[in-house]
Write a structure and sequence with these properties.
This protein is of the alpha/beta class and 359 residues long. The protein has 2 domains: 167 residues, 3-Layer(aba) Sandwich (D-Maltodextrin-Binding Protein, domain 2); 133 residues, Periplasmic binding protein-like II (D-Maltodextrin-Binding Protein, domain 2, 3-Layer(aba) Sandwich), CATH 3.40.190.10. It is 44% helix and 15% strand. The strands form 2 sheets. Strands 2-1-3-10-4-11 form a 6-stranded mixed β-sheet, sandwiched between helices. A 5-stranded mixed β-sheet has the order 7-6-8-5-9. The relative contact order is 0.15.
């Protein structure tokens, strides 16, 4: 008689003949079916994400981008590698236009652009060939607070003093934060600041203050002041006149330093100040192309938000002295931009004039 090699599955199938055909068919199916259904591989598995930085290597934007490139992928299913690439030009406007119109819209390209470039379409800039409301905003790694201050010996020790006397303030040129904040104080608070412009940067203005060439600066980020001149605060070597940002700093508010938005009564003036100083609240924005699949938008935004709370990310940022303060989600940036897009045109024109150094 022929002999048969019977597998355990066959044994079960033959032994159940005496019971019922349906039962046999069911058991046979279980014997031949795979142990578990295989789910499709995550979209990002085996892929890389290009993080396009709108500046040359070595600057602050590059520092943030490289930190984020080391941690973002861990919060995305499939753990893609994030690779930093540079596309400098026009203060990151070149990169912003490319990400909006040319980059793949599948979630494999994200970017880092300057906060002032992000809001250029609101001002009606023809150079900015993107719709700020259609961009996919992922979040901001850090936002900051601006302060207006004078050197200790200055007779202008409060913003009210500046209403009564002309106070020379260092500036860099039209559109610079120090110049714009000073112009706004003069326009909306009636101060008599006199801008001495042409300095190459904040450090040069600080040296000019120490030499007595100017008495103060219209806007310096609080974090930079605390990091580079901590003794100035502790020893009261400077007079902090006001906060020049649309979000007040809790510590400064507790100390009684007024916020510029609280010093104006007109809603119209408040809108103008918000628009002029919003770049501080935008901070260091990260963006992706428009018209991306909704699930990729959700994935990237969730990953960015999770990364900003991750202990390993925060520890490395602290060790490398990279500030991660008051970060914003992509949804928060999106709401901010959409609200500012509704600013009446006459107010926008007024802010543009102030930025250009005209009245």
């Amino acid at each position: 008689m022929p002999s048969f090699l019977m597998t355990s599955g066959m044994t079960r199938s033959l032994s159940c003949i005496a019971r019922s055909l349906p039962a046999c068919l069911f058991i046979g199916h279980l014997a031949t079916a795979p142990a578990s259904a295989q789910s499709p591989a995550p979209f990002y598995a085996g892929k890389e994400i290009r993080l396009v930085v709108g500046f040359a290597p070595g600057g602050g934007a590059d520092t943030y981008a490289r930190l984020i490139s080391q941690h973002l992928g861990r919060h995305i299913e499939g753990r893609p590698e994030v690779v930093v690439q540079h596309m400098p030009g026009a203060n990151s406007l070149t990169a912003a236009n490319w990400i909006y119109a040319v980059a793949p819209k599948d979630g494999t390209v994200i970017g880092s652009i300057h906060s002032t470039v992000a809001i250029e379409p609101i001002y009606g800039s023809e150079r900015a060939r993107f719709d700020v409301a259609k961009f996919t905003w992922l979040g901001s790694a850090s936002t900051d607070y601006g302060v207006m201050l004078t050197w200790g010996p200055s007779a202008t020790k409060s913003w009210r003093d500046a209403q009564l006397r002309e106070t020379p303030m260092g500036g860099m040129g039209p559109g610079a934060a120090a110049d714009v904040a000073t112009a706004m104080a003069n326009r909306f608070l009636g101060t008599q600041f006199k801008v001495v412009s042409g300095y190459r940067g904040t450090n040069d203005i600080v040296l000019a203050m120490e030499r007595g060439e100017v008495e103060g600066i219209g806007s310096w980020t609080w974090s930079a002041l605390a990091a580079t001149r901590p003794n100035w605060i502790a020893e009261k070597k400077v007079n902090v006149l006001m906060q020049v940002s649309i979000e007040p700093h809790p510590e400064l508010t507790k100390q009684g330093v007024p916020a510029i938005l609280d010093l104006v009564a007109s809603d119209r003036d408040r809108l103008a100040i918000e628009l002029g100083l919003v770049f501080l609240s935008v901070g260091r924005p990260f963006v992706a192309p428009p018209e991306m699949p909704p699930e990729r938008v959700a994935t990237l935004r969730a990953a960015f938000a999770a990364m900003l709370k991750d202990a390993a990310f925060l520890d490395e940022a602290k060790n490398r002295k990279i500030e991660v303060a008051n970060p914003k989600t992509g949804e928060e940036l999106d709401r901010m931009f959409r609200r500012l897009l509704d600013t009446p045109r006459p107010i926008v024109d007024q802010v543009v004039q102030l930025q250009n150094g005209t009245k």
